[in-house]
C-alpha cells in the first residue's frame, strides 16, 4: 500500500517522466529467449552426453528439442536418410513431433499410395506426431498418432499411416507395431522417454 501511495504521489508531483518508469516495475514480464539449433549447441550437447554416459552428473540426461536437432543436423549426418532435409524435432506435453522436407524421387513409394496423395511436387513437407514407447533392450519406438503433408489441409487417415511409414523407409523389427518407427538407443543408454518438453535419457547401469 505504501508503494502504491508513493507511486501516486510521484505521478502527481513529477509527472509522466517518473510514472512510466514506475509502471515498468509492475509491467515487467519474463522474457523467453529462443534457442536455435547450431553446431555449437550440438558440440555442447554431445559433451554433456559423453559425461553422462561416463557416469558424471547422475543417471538421467535431459535434452531440449533444439539440442536434439543440433546433433541430428550437425554431428550425426548419417542419422538423416538421403532425400530428407531440414529435420525438425519438437517435444510438447510428452508428444514428439517430427517434420522434414522429403525429396519425392528418393521415396518412390509415396506417389503410389492408391492415389491418396495425388500428383506430388518434387519435394513435400511431412510431419509425424506420436509418443515414445519401449521396444527392446537397446531400442525405442515412436508410435505415430498422425501424419500430415504440406499440401493437404487435414491430417491423413490413420489407416494410411503404416503405408506412409513403409514408403518412407520404415524397417521391420520384430514386435514393432505397423504404425511405429524403430530407433536404436546409443550405447550406454537403457531407455528414453519424453517428459513435457524434454527428452530424458536413462543411463544403463
Q: Helix amount, in percent? A: 25-40%
Number of domains: 2
Tell me, briefly, the overall form: globular
How far apart are the first and last residues' alpha carbons, in Å? 57 Å
Compute the average pLDDT. 83
* Share in β-strands: 25-35%
What's the main sheet like?
5 strands, antiparallel
- Low-confidence spans: 1-14, 16-26
Helical segment tally?
A: 5
Strands across the major sheet, in which order?
2-3-4-5-6
Structural class: alpha+beta
Describe the structure.
The protein has two domains: 1-31, no CATH class; 39-203, no CATH class. A five-stranded antiparallel sheet has the order 2-3-4-5-6. The N and C termini lie far apart (57 Å). Strand 4 (123-136) and strand 5 (139-149) form a beta hairpin. The longest helix has 15 residues, at 39-53. Helix 3 (39-53) crosses helix 4 (65-74). The protein is globular. Helices cover 26% and strands 32% of the residues. The model is unreliable at 1-14 and 16-26 (pLDDT under 50). It is built from five helices and eight strands, in the order H-H-H-E-H-E-E-E-E-H-E-E-E. It has 205 residues and is an alpha+beta fold. It has helices spanning 2-14, 19-27, 39-53, 65-74, 161-167; strands at residues 60-63, 84-92, 95-103, 123-136, 139-149, 180-184, 189-195, 198-203.
